[in-house]
Amino acid sequence: MATDNFGVAGLGVMGRNVALNIERNGFPVVAYNRGDENANRMRSESAGKNVTVTQSIEEFVARLNRPRRVLLMVTAGVGTDRVIDALMEHLDAGDVVIDGGNSHFPDTDRRAERLHDAGLHFVGCGISGGEEGALWGPSIMPGGDREAYERIAPVLEKIAAKSEDDGSCVTYCGRRAAGHYVKMVHNGIEYGIMQLVCEVYDILRRGAGLPTTEIQAVFQAWTESPQVGGYLVDISAECLAKTDSDGGGALVEKILDTAGQKGTGKWTAQSALDLGVPIPTLSQAVNARILSGLKQARVEASRILTGPTAPYAGDLEELVRILHDALHLAMVASYAQGLHLIQTASKEFDYGTDLAEVSRIWKQGCIIRSRLLDPIKRAYMEQPEIENMLVHPSFAAIVNDSLPSLRRAVELANASGVPSTCFGATLAYLDSYRSEFLPANLLQALRDNFGAHTYRRLDKEGVFHSQWSREA
Ligand code: 6PG
User: Fold this and answer.
1) 39 in Cβ contact with 33 (< 8 Å)
2) Residue nearest to atom 15 of ligand 1 (CA)
3) Is pLDDT at 1 greater than 60 in this prediction?
4) Closest Cα to residue 257, out of 218, 207, 205?
5) How far is the CA of 441 from the centre of ligand 1 (A)?
């Protein structure tokens, strides 16, 4: 029996690359894009391959073997709904629609219900790894209908990244919108680690006055680090090494310091607030991007507001060691916060997500892949219900060993007036998390004082209210 074909709708660069990946792995592809440009690019990139390109949705659906499997690679948002609307007119009961975009998880729940009512299966599927990953092996995070997942699993397992010791980087992430939830949090962690890397760069550049070439050498050395080594450190070394073809010097120094964002980091922070999970490193990374956007205001404020400018005058090797250990701990805290959020969401939304599996599929292919993910996976295998991996013995040891370095890194940044937005937030998070007592006793007193909100006591059971005014 001939291998059943696979449909890909949406042929931007990610869609084209996933289509080529699927074809390279032995599955005939039917590829659809209404517009000429992407369709023509797909035609030329797939010349001589088992890919049929069509610009007609009727032909697209008609060419697919039943029950059909259609992967949407459309920019998240209204475009996804439009393609789904068009497809629904032609699909038949039992067909599977997979949304491979960065869709917001409530949209995925809504679409799943709609398709379910029409007898169709829907799989919300996070795909990470950028253009290269899409072509050569991404990390794939599908969720939704288990039966539908089983039908697409043979293809996903073939096209996903492979880790040397741990199989294909795809797993069933759980019921309903679990796949897109896991991908959203992946991106939240991505925001956190990227901002931490940028703060290291800033402390070395503005705090210690190092030229880009020397900062590049630091990141280059860290690519080999068992603690911080991973894709984001690798590409940091790559970005810092790039020379400007237009005028020479480091290209990074010519780039406008205003960061973009498409929403996944913000959604992670919003969902964490809704679920009551503290993820300050990840949330502050969103704030850092927002602050970076206030370029004009910052330019004006820089002429009015003053702060310390004294450069770091200590030993440089010592500074690099401190930053390395601080980055290591802050990366651990970023994964811990993100996985804590997924754990909580899984309970709240009944996803049934296995965190050891999530960590395993992040070991290769995705943007946040790093050497830390193997020990993280092992920790969750040993203690699947652990609320926060920071108290697992292997990570508690890292916290206890590296907290002095993180504290020192924040002090050094503060002393030279360099913002340590995410490092500072991480330090406060860790100091809070390891505190038996926080000042919320006074907070409760204040709430009871002005609003009779009541409080509980350490020394006896019950709910109390006091008259706080001195005249009473
Ligand atoms: C990935 C990336 C990818 C993209 C994000 C982040 O996992 O391959 O996360 O999905 O880079 O959309 O984008 P922003 O930084 O623009 O929010």
Assistant:
1) yes
2) 261
3) no
4) 205
5) 41
The amino acid at 317: E
Which region among 1-5, 48-52, 273-277 has the lowest average model confidence (pLDDT)?
1-5
Q: Do the beta carbons of residue 298 and residue 285 sit within 8 Å?
A: no
CA dihedral 335, 337, 342, 348 (to 10 degrees): 170
Q: How far apart are CA 438 and CA 348, in angstroms?
A: 27
The answer to whether the beta carbons of residues 32 and 60 sit under 8 Å apart is yes
The CA distances from residue 158 to 26, 153, 294, in Å, are 9, 8, 44
Task: Give which of 451, 200, 419 is closest to 288, Cα–Cα.
Answer: 419
Q: What is the CA radius of gyration of the chain?
A: 25
Residue closest via CA to ligand 1's atom 4 equals 130
- Per-residue pLDDT tens for 74-101? 999 999 999 999 999 999 999 999 999 9
Cα(261) to centroid(ligand 1), Å: 8
- The DSSP element (H or E) to which 463 belongs, if any, is none
Looking at every residue in the chain, the average pLDDT score rounds to 97
